[in-house]
Design brief:
heterodimer, A: 287 residues, alpha/beta, Rossmann fold, 6-stranded mixed beta sheet, 4-stranded antiparallel beta sheet, B: 286 residues, mainly alpha
Chain lengths: 287, 286
C-alpha cells in the first residue's frame, strides 16, 4: 500500500451540544503517500491545526476514520500511545514544551517514556541532535539558556529521536529568520530521504511549499479545497488567491509578464524554474 | 475538556440585569445572600424561589445553563443534607430509630430546605452577578464601592487591577495548559494512568513549561503597562465611567420591598398565635 496515513470522511466538531458548537472539519478525505513530503496549506481557521491533532490521536474524530497503514488508530484506544510514537507531531511553537534540566534529557524524554535502554537513548539523542544541527557542546546545557531558534531545533529533535514513520510539523519555521527557516526545512528533506519516512508540513508560506514539498493539500473552510502534486496545485495559482491564500512571488511575476504579452513555460512557482523559463524565453527571442 | 467549566462565567447579553450598574448588582447580591438566610418557613421559601425564578427569566439566560452551574457543588449539597438528616434532634418520637441512628421529621425537613437554600443561593447570585456582569465591570464596581477605604491607605486600585488581571488570564492559562499537555502527550507522556506517585511525576513536564511561560508573560505585561505610563490610579481616568441610572434606583426599591416582605413572612406569622393545622404546616419553623 502506498498510503501511510489516510483520512476517511473525517469530521470534527468542537463543543458539540452547546451554543459554542463549531465544525472544524467537515467530511475530509486525504491520503498521505509513503516517503513523500506533503504540504498542508490553508487560511487561518481552515482546520489545519485540528487536522494535525487528529493524525496522532490527540483528538478523536467526531465521525470518520484515521487509518495508519490501513488500520484505524482508534481500533484499540488503549494503544493510542503507540500511534503517537509512530506519528511524531511537532506542535506550533514547540519550544514552549521544553522542561528538562539538559538538552540531552529533553530530547530523550519521549524515548524514556517508551521505556528504551539508556544506551540506546543516548545514541538516538546524539543522532537526532546532529540531524537538526544542534552542536555536541549544547547537549549538556539547560534548554532555557538557548536562543529561540536553538530551542525550536531541540524540540524538533525530541520528536525526530522517536524515528516516527510520519513526521508532522505544524508551522515549524514560524517566527524564525530566513537562515533558520532554510536549515530547519532543509533538514526535513533529508529526514524523508534518509529514513524513508513521510513528512507532513503545515505552513502559510507558498514559497516553502513550492520548495520543499512533493504534494500539496489546500484546506478551506473545514474542507479540502484541492490536492495534488506541487505542479498541479501551483499551475493554477490564481485560484488559490480566491480562497485567501498568497501565491508564490515568482508566480505573481509570471502573471504580470503574461499581462505584458510575454508567455513563459515551465515550473514558474520556484525561483530556479522561473530562471530557466526566462533563459529559455530570451534564448528563443535572440534566435 | 477543561475549557467546559461554567461556574462564574460571564454570558454576554443585553437584558435588564446586564444593563444594571455593577455596583447596584454587588450590593443587591449581598442583600440577597443575607435575605436567603432569613427565610425560615415553607411560605418564605416559596416566595424566595419565585423571586429567583423571576430574576433568572429576566436575565434571559437559559435555565439549563444556570442549572449546569449547580452541578459542581451537588456533592456539597448532598453532604450537608445528609448531615442534617442524621444530626438534627426534634421533639417527640423519632421517625426511624436504628442502633445509634435516630431520624426525626424535623431533620428531613431541615435537610430539604437546606439544599433548597444552597441551590437558590448559587442560582440567585450567579444570575444577579457573575453570569450577567463582565469581569471588567465587576472589578470596576468593586473598586468604586471600596474606594472609601483609600482614606485609610488601602491600595484599593491595586487590588482591583490584580483581580482583573487574574480573571483575564484564566482562559489563557487553561488554553496553554491544554496545549502543553498535548505537546507532552505527543512525546508519549501519560497523565491519566499509573500510580499516584507516577501521576504526580508526570505533571512535572506540564508544570515547568507552564511556570516558565507565566513568569515570562507577567514580565511582558508589566513592561507593556509601563510603556503606557501606568502608575496605579494616579491621574487615571476611565473610558466607561460608572453612573447610576433610574433603573438602578428602581431595582433598589424593588429589592427593598422584596427583603421587607421576606422578613415579614419569616417573623410575623409567629406573633399572631393562630393555631390550625394548615397554618402550622405552612409556617412550620425550620
Amino acid at each position: 500500500m502506498s498510503n501511510i496515513l489516510e483520512l476517511k470522511d473525517v469530521s470534527f466538531v468542537y463543543s458539540e451540544g452547546t451554543p459554542f458548537r463549531k465544525v472544524a472539519l467537515n467530511k475530509v478525505n486525504i491520503s498521505f503517500e509513503r516517503g513523500k513530503i506533503t504540504g498542508l496549506i490553508g487560511h487561518t481557521g481552515s482546520g489545519k491545526s485540528t487536522l494535525v491533532n487528529l493524525l496522532n490521536g490527540l483528538y478523536k474524530p467526531t465521525s470518520g476514520q484515521v487509518l495508519l497503514d490501513g488500520v484505524d488508530i482508534w481500533d484499540e484506544p488503549k494503544k493510542i500511545r503507540d500511534v503517537r510514537y509512530r506519528v511524531g507531531l511537532v506542535m506550533q511553537y514547540p519550544e514552549y514544551q521544553l522542561f528538562d534540566e539538559t538538552v540531552r534529557a529533553d530530547i530523550g524524554f519521549a524515548l524514556r517514556n517508551k521505556g528504551m535502554s539508556e544506551g540506546e537513548i543516548s545514541e538516538r539523542v546524539i543522532e537526532a541532535a546532529r540531524f537538526t544541527g544542534i552542536g555536541d557542546d549544547l547537549l549538556d546545557k539547560s534548554p532555557f539558556d538557548l536562543s529561540g531558534g536553538q530551542k525550536r531545533r531541540v524540540a524538533i529533535a525530541g520528536i525526530i529521536a522517536m524515528r516516527p514513520d510520519v513526521l508532522v510539523l505544524d508551522e515549524p519555521a514560524a517566527g524564525l529568520d530566513p537562515r533558520g527557516r532554510r536549515e530547519i526545512l532543509g533538514s526535513l528533506h533529508s529526514y524523508a530521504e534518509m529514513t524513508g519516512g513521510s513528512v507532513i508540513l503545515v505552513s502559510h508560506s507558498m514559497e516553502d511549499m513550492a520548495h520543499y514539498c512533493d504534494n500539496v493539500v489546500v484546506m478551506n473552510k473545514a474542507e479540502v479545497y484541492k490536492s495534488g502534486t506541487v505542479r498541479e496545485i501551483f499551475s493554477e495559482a490564481e485560484e488559490l488567491s480566491s480562497v485567501g491564500l498568497d501565491i508564490p512571488m515568482t508566480s505573481k511575476v509570471a502573471k504580470r509578464l503574461l499581462d505584458l504579452g510575454i508567455k513563459l513555460e515551465g515550473d514558474l512557482y520556484t525561483v530556479e524554474g522561473m530562471r530557466d523559463a526566462i533563459l529559455r524565453y530570451t534564448g528563443e527571442v535572440e534566435k | 475538556m477543561i475549557s467546559d467549566i461554567t461556574l462564574g462565567q460571564f454570558f454576554p447579553g443585553n437584558s435588564v440585569l446586564h444593563r444594571l450598574d455593577p455596583r447596584t448588582k454587588i450590593i443587591l447580591t449581598v442583600a440577597f445572600i443575607v435575605s436567603v438566610f432569613f427565610a425560615n418557613n415553607p411560605v418564605a421559601f416559596a416566595f424566595l424561589t419565585l423571586a429567583v425564578c423571576f430574576m433568572t427569566a429576566l436575565s434571559r439566560i437559559s435555565l439549563k445553563v444556570v442549572l449546569k452551574g449547580i452541578k459542581p457543588i451537588i456533592l456539597i449539597i448532598l453532604f450537608t443534607a445528609i448531615i442534617n438528616v442524621f444530626m438534627t434532634t426534634g421533639e417527640g418520637e423519632p421517625l426511624i430509630e436504628f442502633w445509634i441512628i435516630k431520624i426525626y421529621t424535623r431533620g428531613i425537613v431541615r435537610a430539604v430546605f437546606m439544599a433548597v437554600r444552597v441551590i437558590l443561593l448559587i442560582m440567585g447570585s450567579s444570575v444577579l452577578l457573575t453570569y450577567t456582569t463582565s469581569p471588567i465591570a465587576l472589578t470596576d464596581g468593586l473598586e468604586s464601592l471600596l474606594s472609601p477605604l483609600k482614606v485609610i491607605k488601602l491600595p484599593v486600585h491595586t487590588f482591583a487591577m490584580m483581580m482583573s488581571i487574574a480573571l483575564r488570564f484564566i482562559p489563557t492559562l487553561v488554553e496553554e495548559t491544554e496545549k502543553i499537555m498535548n505537546a507532552q502527550k505527543s512525546r508519549g507522556a501519560d497523565f491519566s494512568n499509573g500510580s499516584l506517585v507516577e501521576r504526580a511525576k508526570a505533571l512535572i513536564p506540564l508544570l515547568i513549561p507552564l511556570f516558565v511561560s507565566s513568569f515570562k508573560r507577567a514580565e511582558e505585561l508589566a513592561t507593556a503597562m509601563e510603556c503606557r505610563c501606568y502608575r496605579g490610579d494616579k491621574n487615571r481616568v476611565k473610558l466607561n465611567k460608572l453612573e447610576y441610572h433610574g433603573i438602578d434606583l428602581a431595582w433598589f426599591l424593588i429589592f427593598a420591598l422584596f427583603v421587607a416582605l421576606l422578613v415579614c413572612l419569616s417573623v410575623l406569622p409567629y406573633s399572631f398565635g393562630v393555631d390550625n393545622e394548615l397554618y402550622n404546616i405552612l409556617f412550620y419553623k425550620i
